[in-house]
């Protein structure tokens, strides 16, 4: 199954009125911890679009992300944080903490990530893989230097397992060039409310759910014309 075919599978899930379970796992970005300052994170915006605007009220949108986690942490906690929910759709975003080291181990990252993806696929879940967002110039040198290779690793994993890729890192390129990412990040690498709206928009676009005429589609995102 290709990534486009799996996207089609998600579309069929969305067209079926049968309730579904969506599990979002990741680090502080998916967790929506602290740096949104009370605004909705991208998972909450997605849930609003899905459960309220699209009236899929029986769907469960579950966030198990933990601030500070690396993909190895999820692998070690796979039963509790993923498998017990038997997700119909499993979403993963890792890399920002994994690369924040002076001695990065890209091979271990990829191996662990593949095991996580394979566990979700083995349960029959459709899988979404998110690349990390871009960073401010004030972020640590280690994270800034290492992140591009980790982004490429996520892209490669998505290609190897033919799952849906939501490439935030690529989508934010023009905004970074124009200095607009400064309005999307609260601290170094953590998206603020505007940044989470940008993350949510790309996710909704990739799944064919974006509607600029909807309430969630009207949320203001500085520089969003460059997405």
| Chain oligomer state | single chain
> Overall pLDDT, averaged?
91
Low-confidence residue ranges: none
Distance between the termini: 27 Å
Largest sheet: 5 strands, parallel
Shape: globular
Percent strand equals 5-15%
Helix content: 40-55%
* DSSP, total strands: 7
Major sheet: order of its strands? 2-1-3-4-5
Order of helices and strands: HEHHEHHEHEHEHHEEH
Secondary structural class: alpha/beta
- The count of helical stretches stands at 10
Roughly how many Å is the radius of gyration? 16 Å
Overview of the molecule:
This protein has helices at residues 3-15, 28-31, 42-53, 71-76, 78-81, 106-122, 141-161, 168-171, 173-177, 193-206, and strands at residues 21-26, 60-63, 89-93, 126-130, 164-166, 185-187, 190-191. The protein is globular and about 50 Å long. The mean pLDDT is 91. By secondary structure, the protein is an alpha/beta fold.
Characteristic key phrases:
227 residues; alpha/beta; five-stranded parallel β-sheet; 44% helix
Topology:
Elements: H1 3-15, E1 21-26, H2 28-31, H3 42-53, E2 60-63, H4 71-76, H5 78-81, E3 89-93, H6 106-122, E4 126-130, H7 141-161, E5 164-166, H8 168-171, H9 173-177, E6 185-187, E7 190-191, H10 193-206
Parallel strand pairs: 1-2, 1-3, 3-4, 4-5
Antiparallel strand pairs: 6-7
Helix pairs in contact: 3-10, 6-7
How do you describe this structure in short?
Helix content is 44%, strand content 12%. The chain is of the alpha/beta class. A 5-stranded parallel β-sheet has the order 2-1-3-4-5, with helices on both faces. A two-stranded antiparallel sheet has the order 6-7.
């Amino acid at each position: 199954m290709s990534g486009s075919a799996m996207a089609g599978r998600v579309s069929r899930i969305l067209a079926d009125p049968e309730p579904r379970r969506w599990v979002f796992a990741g680090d502080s970005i998916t967790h929506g911890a602290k740096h949104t300052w009370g605004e909705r994170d991208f998972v909450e915006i997605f849930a609003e679009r899905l459960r309220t605007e699209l009236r899929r009220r029986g769907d469960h949108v579950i966030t198990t992300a933990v601030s500070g986690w690396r993909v190895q942490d999820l692998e070690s906690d796979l039963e509790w944080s993923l498998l017990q929910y038997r997700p119909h759709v499993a979403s993963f975003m890792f890399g920002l903490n994994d690369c924040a080291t002076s001695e990065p181990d890209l091979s271990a990252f990829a191996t662990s990530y593949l095991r996580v993806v394979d566990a979700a696929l083995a349960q029959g879940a459709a899988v979404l893989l998110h690349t990390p967002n871009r960073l401010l110039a004030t972020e640590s040198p280690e994270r800034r230097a290492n992140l591009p290779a980790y982004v490429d690793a996520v892209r490669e994993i998505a290609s190897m397992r033919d799952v849906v890729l939501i490439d935030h890192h690529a989508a934010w390129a023009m905004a970074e060039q124009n200095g607009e990412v400064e309005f999307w990040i609260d601290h170094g690498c953590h998206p603020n409310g505007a940044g989470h709206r940008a993350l949510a928009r790309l996710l909704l676009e990739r799944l064919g759910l974006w509607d600029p005429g909807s309430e969630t589609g009207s949320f203001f995102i500085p520089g969003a014309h460059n997405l």
